[in-house]
Amino acid sequence: MVPVSPELISPRSPRVAAARRLGKRNFRGKERLFLAEGPQAVREAAGHGDTLVELFATVEAAERYADIVGAARDAGARIHLASEDVIADISTTVTPQGLVGVCRFLDTPFQEILAARPRLVAVLAHVRDPGNAGTVLRCADAAGADAVVLTDASVDLYNPKAVRASVGSLFHLPVAVGVPVEQAVAGLRDAGVRLLAADGAGDRDLDDELDKGTMGGPTAWVFGNEAWGLPEETRALTDAVVRVPIHGKAESLNLATAAAVCLYASARAQRAAGGCRSVTGS
């Protein structure tokens, strides 16, 4: 049994101060630790090996989520019962849910992802908004993707907003970070993966590609910046630039919605007869 510390009343406690600093990127990078807030994220962290290091919980939250606290204890995490003021001091949300975990970094080396011969990958190139990054990661997880790659020009994976937006998916699939876009494209291509750039101005239509049966093989979708999309030099590195068709009057789709459409299109094609997952399964 892992001991439960006395209630931490003062936000000036050294443990609280150390956790609070993880809201800043430079401290996260130095300590290789990040915050996971709320019951869903903490539950997933507790089930991910030795990822969860510490858990801060109010008395009320510890009682309400006793199963999560028990799982955290079983995973070897140190449990701190804390006042609501302490949780509010650590948390980066407006309305904390009473649970904040301190977790070890869990990104995967890019070469390990390539060695696993991925069949569906989301590449985030120049994505700067943490909420969008986390939501795309969640979409990739839901679509059954094998990995996500964040290029060196993209947002910090461990930004609290990105962690929250992933709703636990951060703990479900391999994610490589800080990979130069040229290296990401070259490595995936060498691994037998077709590179598709998602861009509203693409010269190929997603529906047409599905109708032609070109989507069943291993595929990596490259998604660009929320405001200006993918630079021309990045689009030129890929095998095709594909647009999601707009059948109504909407001007465009936001990044996360377009990513969900593209990833699910590939997932369906790969699971159809002749697709790369039709024999081995998902």
Structure write-up:
The protein has helices at residues 14-21, 25-31, 39-46, 59-64, 66-74, 84-90, 110-115, 130-142, 160-166, 181-190, 206-212, 232-235, 255-271, and strands at residues 4-8, 33-37, 52-57, 78-82, 99-104, 120-124, 147-151, 175-179, 194-198, 204-205, 219-223, 240-243. By secondary structure, the protein is of the alpha/beta class. The strands form two sheets. A seven-stranded parallel sheet has the order 8-7-6-11-9-12-10. Helix 8 links the parallel strand 6 and strand 7 (147-151). Helix 3 runs parallel beside helix 5 (66-74), helix 8 (130-142) packs parallel to helix 9 and helix 8 (130-142) packs parallel to helix 13. The longest helix is centred in the C-terminal third of the chain and has 17 residues, at 255-271. The two termini are 37 Å apart. The model has no long low-confidence stretch (mean pLDDT 92).
Q: Could you name the ranges where pLDDT drops below 50 across 5 or more consecutive residues? A: none
The helix/strand series, from N terminus to C terminus, equals EHHEHEHHEHEHEHEHEHEEHEHEH
β-sheet strand percentage = 15-25%
Shape label: elongated
Q: What is the makeup of the main sheet?
A: 7 strands, parallel
Rg, Å, rounded: 20 Å
Tally of alpha and pi helices = 13
Mean pLDDT rating: 92
- The tally of beta strands, per DSSP, is 12
- The share of residues in helices is 25-40%
Q: Which strand order spans the largest sheet, edge to edge or round the barrel?
A: 8-7-6-11-9-12-10
Q: What class do helices, strands and sheet pairing give?
A: alpha/beta
C-alpha termini separation? 37 Å
